[in-house]
Write the structure tokens for this entry.
Amino acid sequence: MPDRDGAAALNFLPYGRQEIGDADIKAVVEALCSDWLTTGPRVGQFERAFARFCGAAEGVAVNSGTAALHSAMRAVGVAQGDEVIVPAITFAASANAAVYEGATPVFADVEADTLLIDTSCVESLITPKTRAIVAVDYAGQPADYDALYAIARSRNIAIVADACHAPGATYKGRMAGTLADISCFSFHPVKHLTTCEGGMTLTDNRDYAAHMRRFRNHGIDSDHRKRDAEGTFAYDMIELGYNYRLPDVQCALGLAQLERLPHWVARRRTVAAWYEEALAGITHVCPLRVHADRTNAHHLYVVRLDLSRLNIDRARAFSYLRENRIGANVHYAPVYLHSFYQGRGYRAGLCPVAEKTYQEILTLPMFPAMAQGDVARVANVLRALATLR
């Protein structure tokens, strides 16, 4: 059992942590000293480099993963009165992006052992109003895209990948970022690479890409750099857009970080393997399953607690880990249980598997700089849960 008196002396182990090195700082300083702080050349360089890493034709950089999801909704034509199917277990932005365009999120249940969207549930939720399906690559494992396309293609329903957890993951040998009509990524500090805040959409559809570039720039058909190069001041606002631009300074950071992304993904898989070994004999802790036809990028390391074997609930387990300087977290409550959605008429009982597993899940620390001793420390605290009353 962990030594409670010594717990305060241990370093706090967060659930996620960014890495910033000398190359990152140098790239940012160079951008700050350049002629372009925003709408400059580093934006396109970052877009092309990240799209190339994932194998997509087009990348559109924006200022958050949420902006990426919103841009995708607009590009695929989601509008007032439409329905968008979203898994119940995800960050709220996956559903909010549909609400921004006046559509109604329809929540699908999840697989109990992966927390990925349950494709059989998706099939039962299709109506004539369904315009898009958001496939969330939960914790870093891709959803079942072939099954989703089998449902969607003949009905002209778009597939949008919320791949914010999954750069570097694969599905049947294909890279995340190439699996949907539009794939959305986040560059928040706890993600695989960071631009402080930021995001990107990837697509092979050039019309979608052009639309999203315009949408991120107030709906205007050109940016300042293009007008400067052409020696003109005139522009046209074609539609109502938003200021979702990602500045050159942040793109410079993203470019520098991208150089190390393959190493970081590999390191996360190593940490996951350490967890699998360390948790193997702890009967009240069950890691999520990874499908044999996929590789996991391991943004999160999520386990389910077998509460029938414990004399405590998840809240007590969470508190105990925090008492022992383990930065546990929970990802996520079913979206429709948030007050905003309750106020729009959603009610508990909608997705029984999601609601049950939400009471059991814990997110454990997962970041590339973790050592095997860190994993052993987490496992020891989890093992001691069986001794609590």
